[in-house]
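Researcher: Please translate sequence to structure tokens.
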Amino acid sequence: MFNRILCVIVMVALCLFVNGCSKKDETDDKSKDDKVEKQVIQNAGSDTMVNLAQAWAEAYATVEPSVSIEVSGGGSGTGIAALTSGTVDIANCSRQMTSDENERVKQNTGESPKEFIVGYDALAVYVHKDNPLAEISIDQLANIYGEEGDITEWSQLGIDNSECSNDEIIRISRQSNSGTFVYFREAILGKNRDYKLGSRDLHGSKDVVELIAHTPCAIGYSGMGYATEEVKMLKIAKNPGDAAYGPTAQGVLDGTYPIARPLYMYSLGTPEPQEQSYLDWIFSPTGQGIVEKTGYVPVEQK
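Model: Translation complete:
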């Protein structure tokens, strides 16, 4: 009798052990099935585009969960350097790559960069919200920012900036690895003239706008997508006496706003299939809708 009871106990224990192991194995298998390895696209560069690129990446994750878009900023020059070293798949640029940069990429990687225009930006000139100035000409900007420029005080622009006690114009600019820095210099100063010394050179587009919002004497430039209620975007005239136009989508499309530019993405040669799918999605109505939502101009309107 005792042996029978002992036998039953052993059988029950063995059954529970086997079932327990079986359940654990099923859980492990399910856990393995859930862990799908994602394809990663490294995307770096333009600080002007970083908010836009991040918005694209977040939206694309819901469309294609198997692909992860890793976004970082640092400036157009940073993105081009990473493309040159082959450490990113796509570089974001707020200016066009130069022929020398294209050649370096080809020499280092064996691939020529492939260019994609993914949107347009009106580069805005910002002042503090209480600054009475409403418009400015390209020539006046050149004399504020350029070498040998003689405009250093707000009163020289015909205004009384009462919020600025010493009347000094504080110039806010970008660091030299920024595509915005390069584009603004060429658009305002021309290719043969450089910035004059003494500006406050900031790393990011957002930083420029935030500093101007807290500095009544300041003027600076940044993408129109970074505008806030604490700053004012000036209207720009091509020549003194010409009509001045604000940084708007319409001004970009009809060419009346004088400092508008394309936004670029560059791949190493022909994009890999997952990269091409991502780029195709960027050019879709959904992707271009995000361009518009983040304050830029979609390519589909151009």
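Researcher: Any highlights?
Model: The chain has two domains: 40-120+261-301, 121-260.
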